[in-house]
Amino acid sequence: MTTGRALCRMAEAQFLEAGIDAAAGDAQALFLHALHATGQAVPRHALREHLQAEVPPQVADLFRQAVAARLDRQPVSQIIGRRAFWNHDFHVTRDTLDPRPETELLVEAALAEPFESALDMGTGTGAILISLLAERPGVRGVATDISPAALSVAKANAARIGVQAEFLLSDWFSNLNECFALIVSNPPYIALDEMAALSPEVRDWEPHLALTDGGDGLAAYRAICAGAPRHLRPGGRLMVEIGPTQAAAVSGLMQQAGFVDIATLQDLDGRDRVVWCRKPHDARG
């Protein structure tokens, strides 16, 4: 008989040969996905008994299809259709950037102070805004994106998680006419000449519109810093995720725009990850 463990070991060997680092974890995640796809509600902690048992043909076929997709370097999250972020699982597709654990720092920092309204620009899956609103019931939330497909994914995630928000098609501030207490964004920050060095999972499978501005990686920050003063309330905060070498440049843009209390936060690996600032309390417009 063929057990789940035997299938996973074969997949693990294929993944290692293909240069996929998290081979064992990926194989188990895909096997669990195959079980779920056949209607078996198996929690992860109960996977062991299924690995030891004979695998039904339908599960084996689905697993092999998932393995083939992974060997083509499709991210596991896209294959299984979800990614864990903060306190929820978010549906992901090829139209959205895969939520990263590093971005949770942006959520954590935003929650450090109260806010009655929040704007998330370039929302993708909606993971940032939805996570914030789930922690702050009653807060008004608006999410924008230039991609209708991404907004559709974000709306579905909000409905499934039970969060009320407005999702708006907008090129940064182009379709906005109100002010917020908090503006957050994880914009495209990879320079065009850095794209070739990205892993195949990112470069070949995630939307380039969410990864790069096609230039120096700072275009989004220029647009955000230029428009944010008109859309932040006095004392309101602007918080953005950055690439690890961009803190000085983004801080400079914030300073030029008249923001104060500019600070950089590091992620768990000690890399610059979030830059934030505040609109002066006595500022107008």
Which short descriptors sum up this protein?
Rossmann fold; 285 residues; two-stranded antiparallel ribbon; 9 strands; elongated; 7-stranded mixed sheet; alpha/beta
Summarize the entry for a quick read.
The protein has 285 residues and is an alpha/beta fold. The chain has helices at 4-17, 23-37, 47-52, 57-71, 76-80, 104-110, 127-135, 148-161, 200-203, 208-211, 219-227, 247-256; strands at 82-85, 88-91, 117-121, 140-145, 166-169, 180-185, 232-241, 260-266, 272-278. The radius of gyration is 21 Å and the shape is elongated.
CATH architecture of the largest domain: 3-Layer(aba) Sandwich
Query: How would you name the CATH homologous superfamily of the largest domain?
Result: Vaccinia Virus protein VP39
Shape: elongated
Strand proportion = 15-25%
Radius of gyration: 21 Å
**What would CATH call the class of the largest domain?**
Alpha Beta
| Relative helix content | 25-40%
Give the CATH topology of the largest domain.
Answer: Rossmann fold
Largest sheet: 7 strands, mixed
The number of distinct helices, counting runs of at least 4 residues, comes to 12
Order of secondary-structure elements: HHHHHEEHEHEHEEHHHEHEE
Class from secondary-structure proportions: alpha/beta
Give the low-pLDDT segments. Answer: none
* Average pLDDT score: 93
Number of domains: 2
Span of the ends, CA to CA: 71 Å
Number of strand segments: 9
Biggest sheet: strand arrangement: 5-4-3-6-7-9-8
InterPro entries: DNA_methylase_N6_adenine_CS (IPR002052), HemK-like (IPR004556), N5-glutamine_MTase (IPR050320), PrmC_N (IPR040758), RF_methyltr_PrmC (IPR019874), SAM-dependent_MTases_sf (IPR029063), Small_mtfrase_dom (IPR007848)
EC number: 2.1.1.297
GO molecular function: nucleic acid binding; peptide chain release factor N(5)-glutamine methyltransferase activity
Catalytic activity: L-glutaminyl-[peptide chain release factor] + S-adenosyl-L-methionine = N(5)-methyl-L-glutaminyl-[peptide chain release factor] + S-adenosyl-L-homocysteine + H(+)
